[in-house]
Amino acid sequence: MSQQRRDALLDLFNNRAPIARFFGMRLSYNEKTEAVLDMPYNPNLDHALGGIHGGAYAAMLDNAGWFTAAAAHDESCWVATSEISIRYLRPAKGCALRAVGHMLKSGKRQDVVVMELRDDKGNLVGHATGTFILLEDVGLDRALKPQPGRPS
């Protein structure tokens, strides 16, 4: 991944994505160019019984997969989630979470990414597999361009 692509993806999530601010998530990349999402404990994301809601699991897993797939392609390519299958393995309560994406197969039309979600003790709490479709010639700059009728 080029430094330009890495910087653009980090800026897209860490500085521009409202969901990242709302959930408190931060994106980074490890040495294998896998997306790593960290989220400190946020009591506003708990369900009625006090555990972290499965929707927060899903958001972290999807973003880890999407940003792993996006990092595998150049600036002219945009990625879209086309399918995700999530397994909720155990409850997480009152703890930080970390999601990591691992490219299983990168192809010409789609990527398959495996994502893991762990609590702050390293316990595997969620697992997902996602398929991400490649949209050639959309590119990050074009995807971020304001659209008529859509707030920028």
Give a written overview of the molecule.
The structure is a single chain. The protein has four helices and six strands; from the N terminus they run ααββαββββα. With 152 residues, the protein is an alpha+beta fold. The protein has a single domain, classed as Roll (Thiol Ester Dehydrase, Chain A). A six-stranded antiparallel sheet has the order 1-2-4-5-6-3.
Q: Within the CATH hierarchy, at the fold level, what is the topology?
A: Thiol Ester Dehydrase, Chain A
Shape: globular
The total of helices stands at: 4
CATH homologous superfamily placement:
Hotdog Thioesterase
Radius of gyration: 15 Å
Biggest sheet, in brief? Answer: 6 strands, antiparallel
- The poorly predicted ranges are none
Essential attributes:
single chain; 152 residues; alpha+beta; Thiol Ester Dehydrase, Chain A; six-stranded antiparallel β-sheet; 4 helices
How do you describe this structure in short?
With 152 residues, this protein is of the alpha+beta class. It has helices at residues 3-16, 18-23, 54-71, 139-144; strands at residues 26-29, 35-39, 77-88, 97-106, 110-119, 124-136.
Topology:
Elements: H1 3-16, H2 18-23, E1 26-29, E2 35-39, H3 54-71, E3 77-88, E4 97-106, E5 110-119, E6 124-136, H4 139-144
Antiparallel strand pairs: 1-2, 2-4, 3-6, 4-5, 5-6
